[in-house]
Design brief:
The protein is of the alpha+beta class. The chain has one domain. Helix content is about 35%, strand content about 20%. It has an 8-stranded mixed beta sheet, sandwiched between helices. Helix 3 packs across helix 10, helix 6 packs parallel to helix 7 and helix 7 packs parallel to helix 8. The chain is globular. The mean pLDDT is about 95.
Length: about 280
């Protein structure tokens, strides 16, 4: 089974044996983050292929050389929020995904940051034995080491079995979010649901999704930008929104650890300068 990921605006990329074997047409033409970091002015399949090859060569994505400890990539990303939440004892555990391992449960702040810092929308992956062993040695519990399946609901059940209660979970869609809220009630948990990889979400699904989430990235979703009424916003190009009080509080905990100066102001949200939004 090859590895499949959606990146740079949901462009579908297939990787097999450490090589990019297929790239689809991009869904978006311009992303402010990739323009800023890599100077990409118009996203093409060739740009996406090069970026995937860069990730493979730079930190071993989809290979047994995959680095699982990495520096902070952005000040306020999903993995950075979870890393801080674990460090500051706001969270007990996280349920996220990693290429080559699938769903992973961990209470190790460095591991959750290392796995998530530079990952995009992981669709499916196959187990990489050496990587899974290193994750396990770093206090990570791989939900299914034999298939590397991606299943946040089963991941939360496993986290509960391990004794965790305050758990952050990355969530890509409405169905998973609803099931997780039902599971939260059933098991008496405190879940922080973080929306990820939501470029292209339909308006009605966007409205439903934000009812379940505590935090979400805006990705390149115009519909999320149109319907959201956040309590806190970080960034204006591809912002992160805190939707609930719990979401707001964990984002403010993250602010305490960000080394750069921070402007705190009250205003109507969201604030989205048109020239900075993805196209």
């Amino acid at each position: 089974m090859p590895h499949k990921m959606e990146m740079l605006g949901k462009t579908k990329v297939t990787v097999k044996d450490g090589k990019v074997v297929d790239v689809s047409e991009p869904v978006i033409s311009w992303c402010p983050i990739f323009d800023k970091v890599h100077g990409i002015k118009k996203i093409t399949p060739e740009d996406v292929k090069k970026n995937m090859e860069f990730r493979i060569n730079d930190f071993g994505m989809f290979t047994d050389k995959r680095e699982i400890e990495q520096e902070v990539f952005v000040g306020f990303g999903a993995s950075e929020i979870m890393m801080t939440g674990l460090r500051r004892n706001v969270l007990d555990s996280t349920v996220t995904v990693c290429d080559g391992a699938g769903t992973v449960i961990t209470s190790n702040p460095k591991l959750v940051q290392g796995m998530g810092a530079r990952i995009s929308g992981l669709v499916e992956t196959e187990p990489i034995e050496g990587l899974i062993e290193r994750i396990q040695k770093s206090d990570g519990v791989v939900l299914d080491p034999y298939t590397a399946k991606i299943d946040p609901i089963e991941g939360v059940r496993k986290a509960h079995e391990l004794g965790y209660k305050r758990i952050a979970v990355t969530v890509p869609g409405v169905d998973e979010a609803k099931k997780l809220r039902d599971l939260e009630s059933e098991l008496g948990l405190e879940l922080i649901l973080i929306g990820v990889h939501i470029t292209g979400i339909e308006r009605d699904k966007a409205l439903q999704l934000i009812e379940y989430l505590d935090i979400t990235t805006a990705c390149a979703s115009k519909n999320i930008r149109d319907v959201i009424k956040p309590l806190v916003q970080v960034g204006t190009a591809v912002p992160l929104f805190g939707i609930t009080q719990r979401g707001k509080e964990i984002m403010l905990e993250r602010a305490k650890e960000v080394e750069k100066p921070i402007l705190v102001n009250t205003t109507e949200l969201p604030e989205l300068p048109e020239e900075k939004q993805p196209k």
